[in-house]
Amino acid sequence: MNKRNLLLASALLAMAPLCFAQASGKPLRIVSSFSPGGPVDFVARTLAEQLGRELKRPVIVENKPGANGALGAMETLRGEPDGSTLWITSVGAAAINPVLVPKLPYNTQRDFVPISLVANNVEVLVVNAKDPSSDAAAFIQAVKASKESTAMASSGSGSVPHLALIQLEESTGARFLHVPYKGMAPAFTDLMGGQVKGVFADVAAIMAQVQGGRLKAIGIASSKRHPALPDVKTFEEQGIKAVDTNNWYALFASAKTPAPVVEQLNKAVRAALADPQVNARLMSGGAEPKSSTPQELGALLKADTEKWATLIKSRNITAE
Question: Please, what is the angle between helix 294-314 and helix 259-274, to 10°?
């Protein structure tokens, strides 16, 4: 780079915080790819108020569900790349869709820049509260002994719950009848009604049903127990290996966002998540607060894209 270009680049970098400060006159939008009232929406709205205090500007959450997360992603990319529009998404829309959905209109690793992780959301296997199985090991034993197909729900073909179910099949040799639903709510309804035997779901999504005695949690798909469900054993503890999912939630911005703005946003998000009240509220809802550097999130995105691509291709899974 010659001296003139170096000076120009330095000037642009120096202007980036000023541009961000000027953009702070308008609200910061957090665009969610999910409907109001769900786990991602809960996390986004819990974070938004404190993030506004950290940035000294209003922060609003806009829900743009549909097209497997693509509507929210594209809405974010249509915004000015000045740090005033962020995308909150789960691992599915960020790392799984690029493999699962043909002709996806965005590429997460190319079109977006990581800001920070927001929450870890491991999957938990839940069954009807009346199911006699005390844990996942007993449930698998019953499945193998049964002469009938064991119907298991998911929130859709290629979703994290579906992929967790495949991990459980491959680890145990059990075979299930996969019943995909259009979202988790109807899956829960049929599970409580006895039409299906079980489902994997985010801890945050099942807390109310478990605490209310309508569903029973029997296995955590993580290397350690979840603090919101301390009595539920991990699959590893039950002798079931390689059932390990993390449906993390994270914030991204347009890849055109200046690096100093990304750093400012990351600092604010990390400070907001460290707030004791925010931390406690997320934990009470079953979401485990977790921040990161942009670089750490970028590495996680790359690793999980490769991990889930291998499983999806090996089982020839396609989007519905």
Answer: 90
Q: Output the 3-class SS for 21-75.
A: HHHCCCCEEEEECCCCCCHHHHHHHHHHHHHHHHHCCCEEEEECCCHHHHHHHHH
**Confidence at residue 11, expressed as pLDDT on a 0 to 100 scale:** 47
Block residue for tokens 């001296």 = 3
Fold (topology level) of 123-238: D-Maltodextrin-Binding Protein; domain 2 (3.40.190)
Q: Which CATH superfamily is domain 3-121+248-314 in?
A: Bordetella uptake gene, domain 1 (3.40.190.150)
Contact 215, 191 (CB under 8 A): yes
Model confidence over 66-113: pLDDT tens digits? Answer: 887 899 999 999 999 999 999 999 999 999 999 998 889 999 999 999
Residue 18 has what pLDDT? Answer: 44
Rounded Cα distance between 120 and 224, Å, is 12
Mean pLDDT is lowest, of 176-180, 205-209, 276-280, for: 205-209
